[in-house]
UniProtKB/TrEMBL annotation:
Description of how the protein assembles with itself and partners: Interacts with RHOH. Interacts with the GDP-bound inactive forms of RAB3A, RAB3B, RAB3C, RAB5A, RAB5B, RAB5C, RAB8A, RAB8B, RAB10, RAB12, RAB35, and RAB43; binds RAB3D to a lesser extent. Interacts with DZIP1; this interaction negatively regulates the interaction of GDI2 with GDP-bound RAB8A.
Location relative to the cell: Cytoplasm; Golgi apparatus, trans-Golgi network; Membrane
GO biological process terms on file: protein transport; small GTPase-mediated signal transduction; vesicle-mediated transport
Membrane-topology descriptor: Peripheral membrane protein
InterPro entries, A to Z: FAD/NAD-bd_sf, GDP_dissociation_inhibitor, RabGDI
Protein name: Rab GDP dissociation inhibitor
Gene giving rise to this polypeptide: Gdi2
Chief subcellular location: cytoplasm
Organism placement in taxonomy: Eukaryota, Metazoa, Chordata, Craniata, Vertebrata
Family: Belongs to the Rab GDI family.
One term under GO cellular component: membrane
Keywords for this protein: Acetylation, Cytoplasm, Golgi apparatus, GTPase activation, Membrane, Phosphoprotein
Protein function: GDP-dissociation inhibitor preventing the GDP to GTP exchange of most Rab proteins. By keeping these small GTPases in their inactive GDP-bound form regulates intracellular membrane trafficking. Negatively regulates protein transport to the cilium and ciliogenesis through the inhibition of RAB8A. Regulates the GDP/GTP exchange reaction of most RAB proteins by inhibiting the dissociation of GDP from them, and the subsequent binding of GTP.
Example of a GO MF term: Rab GDP-dissociation inhibitor activity
Length: 433
């Protein structure tokens, strides 16, 4: 919502942004001080002295990293919201196999030394990666007999004679699919996902992921500032009493007895429970540790992916770990957040394989969230509802949703270049003086 309010303001729309919370970012906020996190999860008492100063903590409610070459980074660069943020590269990505964790190779040398694959497997995998790097969906000469819109990914793996372990690690740690459904779909999307991973990795070398200092809550605040620069108005702590509808179309929002009139409305599912449908659940467990995660080379930030069939599940389990190096925790403390899509009536048991990797855990905060998708696409009502944050560990699906809402509102595709031009129209003159 904050990104859209920024983009719409740049597009010359008059934007009023209201939030019933006292902080920016709704579901994806970073909570500070630590006392507030204890309150939010109804934990008795206050954080122990050993946790340091409460205000040194900024704890994300929803763990995600940014793909260095991904859509959100492009949005940040085009809108120049990057000037309000500092990023650090996540030190490594790990994958779980047979009860152990291994580093996802990030260079050719690492791939050759990795114990994830045998020697011949490595050669075949390398061939496959070269194929992916050269693959260009607009140039059939790069297809080598593969039809990107028809050939399944299963067949592409067969073509390169890749074994089950390599398939697992490619699909889940590189293409970042949460389930194996992708195997029987046309290969174009998977190949593009692996390309995104490789290109993101190429930018910084340690891993393809970035994370903002002071936590993810800085992102919505950055876009809120963008909106404000273009004349948008923000109101925090503003209770929403009613969405006013006339003849099936939104005409305003009622708050504290007054109605703010509008032509279009963007909101998350929590404001319009009658216009969304539940599509699943995610469990997230925020863990405070006093040590880096074992077998990660003492990294102060990392991601661990537990592919579903390693733990007899349908969906992967993820761990995102960050620390005091990112100004989100007190000195010497680490925050690890485990998350996965809920499949059974006992979600805490489902996430146990991840928590076992984190022991000893000093304090944990468990949340189980319903996932909602809009049943009303806004065509008539002009109410545009975002989807709940899913279990993925990066912002690509969120950006797809932003582009989808943009298209439904504006009737045209979201175009980065167009946005750049509009910005120059408004700012072009002053810059020169």
């Amino acid at each position: 919502e904050c990104i859209l309010s920024g983009i719409m303001s740049v597009n010359g729309k008059k934007v009023l942004h209201m939030d019933r919370n006292s902080y920016y970012g709704g579901e994806s906020a970073s909570i500070t001080p630590l006392e507030d996190l204890y309150k939010r999860f109804n934990l008795p008492g206050t954080p122990p002295e050993s946790m340091g100063r409460g205000r040194d903590w900024n704890v994300d409610l929803i763990p995600k990293f940014l793909m260095a070459n991904g859509q959100l980074v492009k949005m940040l660069l085009y809108t120049e919201v990057t000037r309000y943020l500092d990023f650090k590269v996540i030190e490594g990505s790990f994958v779980y196999k047979g009860g152990k964790i291994y580093k996802v190779p990030s260079t050719e040398a690492e791939a050759l030394a990795s114990s994830l694959m045998g020697l011949f497997e490595k050669r075949r995998f390398r061939k496959f990666l070269v194929y992916v790097a050269n693959f260009d969906e607009n140039d059939p000469r790069t297809f080598e007999g593969v039809d990107p819109k028809k050939t399944t990914m299963r067949d592409v793996y067969k073509k390169f004679d890749l074994g089950q372990d390599v398939i697992d690690f490619t699909g889940h740690a590189l293409a970042l699919y949460r389930t194996d459904d992708y195997l029987d779909q046309p290969c174009q999307e998977t190949i593009n996902r692996i390309k995104l991973y490789s290109e993101s990795l190429a930018r910084y070398g340690k891993s393809p992921y970035l994370y903002p200092l002071y936590g993810l809550g800085e992102l919505p605040q950055g876009f809120a500032r963008l909106s404000a620069i273009y004349g948008g108005t923000y109101m925090l702590n503003k209770p929403i009493e009613e969405i006013v509808i006339e003849n099936g179309k939104v005409v305003g929002v009622k708050s504290e007895g007054e109605v703010a009139r509008c032509k279009q409305l963007i909101c998350d599912p929590s404001y319009v429970s009658d216009r969304v449908t539940k599509v699943g659940q995610v469990i997230r467990v925020i863990c405070i540790l006093s040590h880096p995660i074992k077998n990660t080379n003492d990294a102060n930030s990392c991601q661990i992916i537990i592919p579903q069939n390693q733990v007899n599940r349908k969906s992967d389990i993820y761990v995102c770990m960050i620390s005091s190096a990112h100004n989100v925790a007190a000195q010497g403390k680490y925050i690890a957040i485990a998350s996965t899509t809920v499949e059974t009536a006992d979600p805490e048991k489902e996430i146990k394989p991840a928590l076992d990797l984190l022991e000893p855990i000093e304090q944990k905060f468990v949340s189980i969230s319903d996932l909602f998708a809009p049943t009303d696409l806004g065509t008539e009502s002009q109410i545009f509802i975002s989807r709940t944050y899913d279990a993925t560990t990066h912002f690509e699906t969120t950006c797809d949703d932003i582009k989808d809402i943009y298209k439904r509102m504006m009737g045209s595709e979201f175009d980065f270049e167009e946005m750049k031009r509009k910005k120059n129209d408004i700012y072009g003159e002053e810059e020169l003086q």
